Every structure is written in structure tokens, then in C-alpha cells.
Amino acid sequence: MLRYAITSRALYPGSEQEKQAALLREASRWIADGIDFIQLREKDLPAATLANLARNLLENIALTASPTRLLINSRPDIALATGAHGVHLTASPDELSPPRSATSSTPPDVPNP
After folding, report:
1. pLDDT, tens only, 12-69
2. Which of 35, 47, 62, 86 pairs with 68 at a CA distance of 20 to 30 A?
3. Beta strand 69-73 pairing with 4-6
């Protein structure tokens, strides 16, 4: 049996910063428990913020040597830019169309570390 968690910072009270911190704390518990997959599903966040959350989660996964794999929801550009383990795509036919120029491997609004 695979264990799969999907994030939603809307579940947490407070400011945007507090919601993101709560999401990271909850995901850290999932990572410590060795959940199989975390799907980072924060569709309304700007690319840079989403990438920052992904990098924080990936760092936590690496530090704990957890088997958890991080999937980025609907954003292959963010998954590639952050080194996530994969991307979750919906059935939408336009989802694979990049929201940016196809000549760059990093979205313009995602800073490289």
C-alpha cells in the first residue's frame, strides 16, 4: 500500500507566512513517518514561492534520509527547477504547454539556488 499526502495550506489559520510554516511542519511529520509521496498542490502560489516550498521539503527529505518522494502539482517547470522527484499532471490537454519560453530550463521567476 502506498501512502500519499496532498498539501493544502488553506487548512491552516493565520497569515500566508503562518500557513506556509504550518504546511512545512505538517509535511515534516509526513516525511519523518516515511510517507511514500507528498504532492505539493498549491496552485495559487507564485512560481518563486512554490519553488521555495519545494526546496524546503526536498531539503528535509534529504536530511532525514526519508524514502518520501515529492511531486509538484501541474508545474513541470518547477519540478525541473527544484529537482523534485516528479510532477502530478491532470487530464487537462493544455497542462503540458509551458507557461514560459521553451528556450529556458528555469522559469524566469524562479531563482536558481
Report:
1. 999 999 999 999 999 999 999 999 999 999 999 999 999 999 999 999 999 999 999 9
2. 47
3. unpaired
CA–CA distance, 41 with 50 (Å, rounded to integer): 9
Residues 6+ apart with CB under 8 A from 71: 37, 38, 39, 40, 79, 84, 85, 86, 87, 88
Residue 43 corresponds to which cell in the numbers above?
Answer: 496552485
Report d(CA 65, CA 12) in Å as an integer: 27
Kindly give, in sequence order, each residue whose CB lies less than 8 Å from that of residue 44, ignoring residues fewer than 6 positions away: none
Contact 24, 57 (CB under 8 A): yes
